[in-house]
Amino acid sequence: MDPVTHPAGAAGPLVEADGLMVHFPILGGILQRRRGSVRAVDGVSLSIQRGETVGLVGESGCGKSTLGRAMIKLREPTGGSARFDGRDLARLSARELRRLRRRMQIIFQDPYGSLDPRMSVGDIVAEPIQTHRLASGRAKHERVRELLRLVGLDPVFAARYPHEFSGGQRQRIGVARALAVEPEFIVCDEPISALDVSIQGQVLNLLIDLRRELGLTYLFIAHDLAVVRHVSDRVGVMYLGRLVEIGASRRVYALPAHPDTRALLSAVPVADPAVERRRRRVILAGDVPSPANPPPGCRFHTRCWLYERLGRPENCRTVEPELRPVGADQRAACHYAEAALTSDVGVVRPADAAPRDAH
Amino acid sequence: MTTQVPAPAVVDVLAARPVVTPRRDALRRLRRNRLAVVGAIVVVVLLAMAVLGPALAPWHYRVQDLEALRANGNRPLPPLSPDHLLGTDQLGRDLFSRLLDGAQISVTVAVVVQVVVLLIGVPVGAAAGWFGGRTDNLLMRFTDVVYAFPDLLFIILLGVAFRETAIGEAMNGLLLIFLAIGLTGWVTMARLVRGQVLSLKESEFVEAARAIGVSDFRIVVRHILPNAIGPVIVAVTLGIPSAILAEATLSFIGIGVQSPRASWGSLIDDGTRWMQSEPHLVVFPALALAIALMSFTFLGDGLRDALDPKLRGRQ
Ligand SMILES: Nc1ncnc2c1ncn2[C@@H]1O[C@H](COP(=O)(O)OP(=O)(O)OP(=O)(O)O)[C@@H](O)[C@H]1O
Ligand code: SF4
Ligand SMILES: [Mg+2]
Questions:
Q1: Nearest chain B Cα to A123, which residue?
Q2: Which residues form the domain of B100?
């Protein structure tokens, strides 16, 4: 059997990043010499099991898209490794990698930029089929029609061009293109955030339905924590190129262990006014530091509310915290995660929340 | 399938409409722009004049109607003279026929210059944009040097250096002039194409093609080039008037087209000597030049709007 195109079996995670780094060079001067680097992703380890959906959140520019792209080798890692089904992507030949692309796909945020304006919808959806010689002639056209139907579009629109469609419809076209190769893993890079609020739900439901029907594995990147909670089994939080917390969605949302997670959650409005009254909200002070020059020690310390509350402990400035277990199926990179866990910022205090957690 | 999500009502409206390809959409928008349509018509007329010129011309451009000249006291014939619609010059040559010859020269200059510009500018720009890094640096510093060098000086130097060679003698020395103009003009095209390729290379649809496993070659051919072509067409159209003007300027200052051939620039130059008594010798060639420049500019501006992807699909 072909080891590239056929799954090795259920053993081990489907996708795995190990100390993954992506640094972009900053060039300057007339000679375009390297002046430094943007550490977009700076040592992230993350594994995703078959059939699992891992949500990824974090402020704009923290490296979510870059991580997602590096995991399917659309970005060249500058350190660490990305593995797919046990195979190190860096070790594959260009040819092997192209064949492996059948198994991993990506859905983009921008439904306008992600479709070639000069190709018809039919050609766009047919391109993966042609590239991997999955079908030709009539069978190809039939497959394109089937895919369009699968994403809720009328197949008669295959002859039309992207500019004739609305944002939501274009996003469906992008989904059909990703599904054309029958992938196992899809990076969904903020697939609904550019859409009209009224159609976000439709596209989200489509992705959820497809996941169930086709047994897909997702890395689901989003700004909106409520959306991520809705779709993810586990959720990861990034800050300045690092994964600062990861754990089962239920845990992370109920008991966030990293001050950044709590700050992000406190920005999300809660429907229940009783909960809203009992929790404390924090607004992160200042701007995100430059990923070209992250703060020493804990990268979050320049904006951390807990650091301030604890009287600016020295180790926050000098020792970079590693991800460590802070509960069942939950890890956080904070020296004072235990203090964060019992705080009332972002969510209600665990003591108050306990009875609510029961149901 | 259970995933059938009710499609929004827009789709039903769409079903009733004819398919609008990007090209048809661009044409539609071009047609709505009146100036551009007028420009296009004049451009077509100009092309026809250039191609059919010798057949249309009542006189050969170098033939002197000495009889009529003598009858007019050896002075240029005024417009609306019998046999000479726009009059003649001081040598009795038919001005209308000479303007037609000028049209041929202008169109030739436009074509030769833009071919040179495309042949050099597109590959250089595409290579710089696609390969990036060192290649980009090298090519772009080279274009900077060409850009910084004074065009006129370069053209004159080339003219002097190659005067005695086969290229220098081809077409009465015209070919050399045209090549020289092209050799100074490709820089802008290279920069434009580089910018296009750079931004298209980073576009999400190219990233999508990479994710699918499409080869680099096919990405360039299927995605990058077709999307870069619009701005190139606009640049070519808008580059034509400057090429025509450059030739006219060179001919006006006497280092371009030589007698007996009649460029609009050299016609204006000749005419200035008679400007007081026979203004038509300056007015008509100047008018021809102005109309040609304006129509290409109008057409180019119209194409720019029509091919702008951001405006695609708009009414
Ligand atoms: N191709 C690139 N070249 C240079 N820098 C880049 C490149 N792509 C991303 N970056 C930088 O890397 C950092 C991370 O960017 P990334 O797009 O991954 O963030 P993100 O978390 O997806 O943000 P957003 O939520 O806005 O999509 C940013 O500082 C960005 O400017
Ligand atoms: S390690 Fe210190 S600065 Fe970093 S998140 Fe924890 S408390 Fe805040
Ligand atoms: Mg992003």
A1: B222
A2: 96-311
What is the value of pTM for the model shown?
0.82
Residue A16 Cα to ligand 1 middle (Å):
21
In a domain, B57, yes or no: no
Shortest Cα distance, chain B CAs vs residue A188, angstroms: 12
For the domain spanning A50-64+90-232, the CATH number is 3.40.50.300
Lowest mean pLDDT: which of A157-161, A354-358, B62-66, B147-151? A354-358
With CB atoms and an 8 Å threshold, state whether A163 touches B5.
no
Domain ranges of chain A: 50-64+90-232, 256-341
Cβ of residue B8 closer than 8 Å to a chain A Cβ: yes
Q: What is the pLDDT of residues A202-243, one digit of tens each?
A: 999 999 999 999 999 999 999 888 889 989 999 999 999 999
Q: Is pLDDT at A3 greater than 70 in this prediction? A: no
The ipTM estimated for the assembled molecules is: 0.87
Return the DSSP state at B283. H
End-to-end CA distance of chain B: 37
Minimal-distance CA residue to ligand 1 atom 24: A60
pLDDT tier for residue B199 given thresholds of 50, 70 and 90: very high
For ligand 2, atom 3, which residue shows the shortest CA distance? Answer: A301
Q: What is the pLDDT of residue A27?
A: 82
A to B CB pairs, distance under 8 Å: 124
Minimal C-alpha gap between A123 and chain B (Å):
11
Domain membership of residue B101 (yes or no) is yes
For residue B179, what pLDDT is reported? Answer: 85
Can you say how many angstroms the Cα of residue A114 is from the centroid of all Cα atoms in its chain? 17
Judged on CB neighbours under 10 Å (0-12, 13-18, 19+), B150 is: exposed
User: Sheet holding A87-88: strands in order across?
Assistant: A33-48, A15-28, A79-84, A87-88
With respect to residue B60, please indicate whether it lies within any of the assigned structural domains: no
Q: CA B24 to CA B26: how far, in whole Å?
A: 5
B212 touches chain A (CB under 8 A): yes
Ligand nearest to the CA of A293: 1
Q: What is the pLDDT of residues A125-156, one digit of tens each?
A: 999 999 999 999 999 999 999 999 999 999 99
Per-residue model confidence as pLDDT tens digits over B60-119: 888 889 888 898 888 888 888 888 889 888 888 999 999 999 899 888 888 999 999 999
Name the residue among B230, B302, B237 with its Cα closest to residue B23. B230
Average pLDDT, chain B: 86
CATH number of the domain to which B100 belongs: 1.10.3720.10
CB A64: neighbour CB atoms within 10 A?
25
In a domain, B223, yes or no: yes
Q: Quote the tokens at residue B237.
A: 């159209």
Pick from A74, A118, A177: CB nearest B226: A118
Cα-to-centroid distance, A61 and ligand 3 (Å):
7
Q: How many domains, in total, are found in chain B?
A: 1
CA-nearest residue to B224 within chain A is A116
Which residues between 130 and 149 in chain B have a beta carbon less than 8 angstroms from any beta carbon of chain A? 137
Can you tell me which atom of ligand 1 is nearest the CA of A65?
22
Q: pLDDT tens digits for B20-71?
A: 888 888 899 899 999 999 999 999 999 999 888 888 888 888 888 988 889 8
Cis bond leading into B260, ω under 30°?
A: yes
- Helical segments of chain A, H only: 64-71, 94-100, 121-131, 137-150, 167-179, 197-214, 225-231, 249-254, 259-266, 273-278, 305-309, 314-318, 337-341, 350-357
